[in-house]
Write a structure and sequence with these properties.
Elements (H helix, E strand, L loop, with lengths): L3 E3 L7 E6 L7 E7 L5 E8 L6 E5 L4 H15 L5 E5 L7 E3 L16
Antiparallel strand pairs: 1-6, 2-5, 3-4, 6-7
Protein name: Siphovirus-type tail component RIFT-related domain-containing protein
Pfam families: Sipho_tail
InterPro entries: Dit_BPSPP_N, Siphovirus-type_tail_N
Length: about 110
């Protein structure tokens, strides 16, 4: 099982169950087509790389799990992007920020 380090911190009760890490960020190509039908690449913009991650938060009871989920929120919700490293690629890191929300119904058994 792998975990992660975010903002220099690891949580021993958090395991990464699944992550969908694309090879590169999506690209937006700006192409100009002339009236004669010729095309030319004007520029390329790199979009934000989204890495969906499913976390397993180990808890002894529902109350313990809810407390740990709040601790995880305090850990992952930051004002700025912070360094994120996954155990399976310790030499690569991302500057990451949490985006989206959590379905409270899922916290009973796991959180995404």
């Amino acid at each position: 099982m792998i975990s992660m380090t975010f903002n220099g911190i690891r949580k021993p009760f958090v395991t990464v169950l699944e992550k969908k890490r694309p090879y590169w960020a999506p690209l937006n190509r700006n192409i100009h087509t002339t009236r004669s039908g010729h095309t030319r690449l004007l520029s390329t913009e790199k979009e934000v790389l989204m890495i969906p991650v499913t976390l397993f938060i180990d808890g002894n009871s529902k109350e313990d799990l809810l407390n740990k989920a709040e601790e995880v929120a305090g850990w992952l919700i930051t004002k700025e992007a912070e360094k994120l490293t996954f155990d399976d690629q310790p030499n690569r890191h991302f500057m990451a920020a949490l985006d989206g929300g959590v379905d409270e119904d899922e916290i009973v058994s796991f959180s995404r």
